[in-house]
Amino acid sequence: MMKLRIPIAAFFLAVLSTGCIENDIPYANVVAGITAIEAEGAAASIDADLRSITLTLDEETDIRDVNIKKVEFNVPSVKASTEITGRKDLRDDFKVTLSTRKDYIWTIHAEQEIERYFTVSGQVGGTKIDAVNRRAVTQVSSATDRSSLEITSLRLGPDALTTYSPAPSAIHDFTNGQEIDVTCHGRTETWSLFVEETETVVELVSADAWTRVAWLEGAGIEGKDNGFRYRESGEEEWKEVPDVEHDGGSFRAMLDSLSPLTSYECIAYCGDDLSEIVKFTTEEEMQMPNSGFETFSHAESDKYYSFYDPAGILPELRSKWWGTGNKGSTTVGSSYTITMPDTEDHVEGEASVKLVSQYVVIKFAAGNIFTGEYSRTIGTSGGVVRMGRPFTLRPRKLTFWIKYKCGKITEKTLGDFPAGETVKVGDPDRGNVWIALGTWDYHKYGGSADSPLEINTTDKSSFFNPAGPDVIAYGSFVTDKDINEWTKVEIPLEYTTTSKRPTHIVVSAAASMLGDYFTGSPDSILWLDDVRLEY
Q1: Rounded Cα gap, residues 155 and 222, in angstroms
Q2: Does domain 125-198 match CATH 2.60.40.2340?
Q3: Which residues contact 425 (CB under 8 A, 6 or more apart)?
């Protein structure tokens, strides 16, 4: 699985020394590890700290016969207790011991999502699929004749690879359930299909309220007039919820244009039948501290500005919400500040933030700012930052004002680029702003409770992955052209789920998107102002 480039490299540079470097580290201290793995029909994610690999399999891949084609280790002389490459049955975790002079146990775990469904005519609500016990259960009203039903849809395996016996069109009597043989990858499994009676005609299953929207889910009889109505608490008149989506007996809608911190009532209907009234209250609307970058100080060092004021009267002015690479880049001298306030050029208030890419002695540093904190410097080769700040609301988009001076990538470009990157000397540099919401646990990601994502620029496996399992929303803006006048940009957030609540938010901006690969232009400058969360 490709990891996203986090433009935070060259946040560091310790005083450079001359002379020979001796490799006097005992070989026994090398922790044997897997740095890359390739499997047919799968995407791989490596967690070096937990010594684990997750293979996310395509639907069509046979989990009992996964072909691991290639594996790479961090040192060439690693010995494995068993052959890793080749065809493996990954229904259970595959464990292997890697050895240098010590033994380290690694685990390969496979995950596979297969879309399955089962619906019948006159169905009420959705279907419960139990893949472990090979059962599918749905419901019809007590007035429906279960001995004469039509299967309106059935999918219990990968579409192109799965056959059924008997044919679904030949099955009608569900008085006592039915069994059906499902064949895929040359193996046959028997599934049980059940249709149960219910006295409930319509139900408002859930009403998940955000700040200005609510996500509604209902259950009614398939084919009838199903929908929702709502009103503000205390009002008499009901309003129709538009744009209802139907899936058999299930139906759902996004109710927008709501007001923050307001109580509402909602019902579901199926024809003339009504559900019980469900009440919900919308969440508050909150902005990130110092999102106009008006507050800055020399709180950490007289060499550079930090974007908070420990002497501020208001708590948000004292908050270390924003971090930069200044602490690392100024190690060799105060002239290497890469992030600074600009009181001469701004949209609102009295300042914007100015991100300046440049060479710091011999290495390239991308001007940057992010929610989080600079952690530490690793010699002359890298740095560590911790990204994220506590946040539990669910905005719909991020907006900001931006100007950008786009330089050309120079001949001093360094870096082992990630897959898909083909930039070369002379290409336009790229400015980048991105946002993510997630449920990251610092025990897993190495950071702190406030800033859980620890990013080590010397370890590409630690880079942020927008498709990671704990990311619930993500959006990005990239430009490779000059933006000479202040321009408002919006980044819609794409949510992987509407039911989870985030624990942290990450917002990051950089004048050179590939700065962590020491790639970019010393002529690139990005200005940012009035960053807002839209709900």
Answers
A1: 18
A2: yes
A3: 409, 410, 411, 413
Q: Which tokens sit at 122? A: 């006159």
Q: What are phi and psi of 530, to 5 degrees?
A: 50, 60
Task: Please identify which residue in the block is written with the tokens 């297969």.
Answer: 114
SS3 letters for 387-450?
A: ECEECCCCCCEEEEEEEEECCECCCCCCCCCCCCCCCCCCCECCEEEEEEEECCCHHHHECCCC
Do the two domains 125-198 and 212-281 of this chain adopt the same fold? yes
pLDDT at 412: 65
Within 8 A by CB and 6+ apart from 442, the residues are 448, 449, 451, 452, 454
* Cis peptide, bond prior to residue 428, ω within 30 of zero: no
Tell me the HSE value of 156 on the side-chain side, using a 13 A CA sphere. 31
Distance CA 334, CA 238 (A): 64
**Helix or strand holding residue 327 (H, E):** helix 326-329
CATH topology of domain 212-281: Immunoglobulin-like (2.60.40)
Cβ atoms 529, 401 nearer than 8 A: yes
- Report the 10 Å Cβ neighbour count for 84: 19
**Which CATH code for domain 28-112?**
2.60.40.2340
**Burial of 420 by CB count in 10 Å (0-12 exposed, 13-18 middle, 19+ buried)?**
exposed
> What type of residue sits at position 222?
E
The ranges assigned to domains in the chain are 28-112, 125-198, 212-281
d(CA 535, CA 523): 36
CB 525 within 8 A of CB 353: no
Q: Count other C-beta atoms under 10 Å from residue 379's C-beta.
A: 12
Q: How far apart are CA 367 and CA 358, in angstroms?
A: 8
Query: Could you list the mean pLDDT of each consecutive 10-residue stretch along the chain, which spans 535 residues?
Result: 41 34 45 93 89 95 97 92 97 95 94 95 94 96 94 95 97 97 97 96 96 97 95 97 95 97 98 97 96 92 89 77 80 68 95 88 78 80 86 97 95 63 88 97 93 85 86 97 98 94 97 82 95 97
pLDDT of residue 11: 38
| pTM of the predicted structure, to 2 decimals | 0.75
